[in-house]
Amino acid sequence: MSLPESPPDARVDLAVRPRAERRDRLMRIARLKLVARANEFFETCDGVDASFNAFTETHERFVLAIGKNHQSEAFGISFVSCVYLAGPTFWTRVQLRCKSIEDSDGELLYEVTDVAAGFVVRCDTIVIPTYDLTFACEWSRQLAG
Known about the structure:
Blueprint: H1 8-44, E1 50-56, E2 61-66, E3 75-80, E4 84-86, E5 90-91, E6 97-102, E7 108-114, E8 119-123, E9 125-128, E10 133-136, H2 137-144
Antiparallel strand pairs: 1-2, 1-5, 2-3, 3-9, 4-8, 6-7, 7-8, 9-10
Helix pairs in contact: 1-2
């Protein structure tokens, strides 16, 4: 007596699933590390002033100006490929925090908020040129690949 042969799709699914699950797991880990690093940096900005600096439509890039504090001069934070932006144009006592989210299409994004100020921005990449820092969604995909 022989066993019935599995449909070709089932064999492919079993072969691919562990690799895809591993890649997804690695991507989540890489993403968590990037978010943790972004939050470490944002904590150093706590308590300073923030203001709307610029929006470039061609790159959907929003720049938030961060005022100087006892540790640093004023600088800008660029949020690239923004899909959502809400909040004040100026506020004091900044407390920015970052988390990873998925949009309705399953694409990974960063969501940076200052809950007390009502500020929210969702984007693909965060760039802080003064400190040579970049946090890109694409990196978590490449690290897991």
